[in-house]
Fold this protein.
Amino acid sequence: MFILGKTLVIVESPSKAKTIEKFLGKNKYEVLASLGHVRDMPKSQFAIDIENDFAIKYITIRGKGEKIKELKKAAGKADRVLLAPDPDREGEAIAWHLMEILKIDETEPCRIEFNEITKDAVKNAVKNPRQLNYNRVNSQQARRALDRIIGYQLSPLLWRKVKKGLSAGRVQSVTVRLICEREEEINSFIPEEYWTLDNHFQIGSHSMIGKLNKIDEKKAEISSKEQMDAILQELERAEYVVSDLKVQKKSKNPAAPFITSSMQQDAYRKLNFTAKKTMRVAQQLYEGISLGKEGSIGLITYMRTDSTRIADVAKADTAAFIKEHYGEQYVPKEQKEYKNKNNAQNAHEAIRPTYVNKTPESIKEYLSNEQYKLYKLIWERFVASQMASAQMEQTTVITRSGRYDFTTSGTVIIFKGYMEVYEEGKDEEKEENQTLIPVEKGQQLDSKKLVPKQHFTQPPARYTEATLIKTLEEKGIGRPSTYAPTVETVLARNYVVREAKQFYPTELGILVVDLLKEHFPDIIDVNFTAGLENKLDGIEEGAYYWKDILRGFYSPFEKELAAAEEKIGPVKIEDEVSEEICEKCGRNMVIKMGRFGKFLACPGFPECSNAKPLLEKINVTCPQCHNGEVVLRRSKKGRTFYGCSDYPECSFVSWDRPTGERCPKCDGIMVERNTKKGKLTICSNKECNFEPVEQTSKES
């Protein structure tokens, strides 16, 4: 239908409004921003009428009165109104609230959405408005209602029984449980000794390392020094022959284009971005960046998605780009297809650049450092996902002496394929690839030395932000939009702390989890939470009525709440008493846990409010002043560093942990540093090229 008058388009953010208005033109369109939600449940009330079939009360958000007046005035002058919040259930709910406030008929096709903010996508959306999707709206309402029920009825119980300021939540409580249970696994872990044996073979002027792999055709399992000594004695005058030589060609496929969770994980691994920071920067790239004379352009597709689908036109454009810039051999013979998870919203696309020809380098001058880094990561991951697989040749050499087989493996890349552009980050680095020396079957090899190494089995690693998000996704807890706020919430509530990138539960977190496990087993059960999440997705698909889900949840929850109120007595958190004496009142100070870790506080609060940092000693004398001790400190952002206990008299600081030793080459300070090869002791002097001897001591 041809529209003579002006059309009002309402989006969420001003930057998005600016970008879209440029595409549509100011003559026929006015684009305004609602600044997110305009209505919500009142914070001061429960706002859910249980007796009236879970009727929800909504009010205008404080401070949005003037914005609503502006939108009503503009809507009154316009011939039609198009609602264009983000293309997800939260965006659908915002559109519904706007429709209610602006009194738009529910049968009116007023909702438009686009997965990318480009001229073609926006213009196409304006031409094809649809009616509001009430399944999406009700899915969002059900989530908000469940979170309100748990938050407003369970959290006050924790305030009364434990302490004020605590909270419980549908996703956050299960997240804390995962971190607590991982800590339990670590604490109860009993390490087992095992040994490995490396054989350094000499071939002319070259050498290669074979690892003892089999004894008597069975996997080599050596559990004690006595066993190893017996093997070494047996191999004292051994002769070695190449018994087998296997050459195998392999293909390595690229990773799928980013979805929200994989973007957050890789940005953490490669850029050291938290999930919160990743989503903030991605939002900027999605809404639009000013590219000089080109104006504001959305650089990536919508960043809250769990679908790996790619639009056909994007696939074609990318194939042409790859052919032009890398060569025809880098274009796969068949287009790459990636499988979605069962609950993925396939209407969305994966996260990709909107224009593949806008390479990171070509627009770097217009981007902040953070924007450039994340855009480069997204661009490279996407382009690689559409490229040909890498081709490799893996060679395995089996060297035998009697009943002992030593294995040497090496991989040669024949064709890099997608690896020209990008390789997926890993949570754990594998051993470096060994360059093999050409040998022949039946060839005798000389052993230069045998190197036995003692190891101990390791407990499972503590969660980092990347591995926690990966676990939440695998277990079906939460959805793409919830990962970042969940991590921030459990940190803010002091249920967990983050040290050296790893999550540790606090005493408070363990106490609350134990309390919930005993009295609210469903709320904190991983499978129950995942099942509830699937039902909420089912509302969006029309499989469930939203109030049926609320009724099914509330009935048993109400009984558990009443029983817990009776059974749980006051729970007191005992603070650890330190030897530090409060200089203001003479009491022994206690150790408390704050947002940035432990600190000392006077137990006489509020009469005495003295507090100071807890100086955690590492038993190393300050290498600068030689008087104070090196202590663990925390920056204002919570990052750990090391400093002198005599600060500010002594200014020594280091991000790396000092060992107390000096560099044998330059007399610099030796420190421990985590690297891709593991934890190494190195010289802190950047100009010193001292390389540590390979560390093969007991693993701890």
Observations:
- The first strand starts at residue 7 and ends at 11.
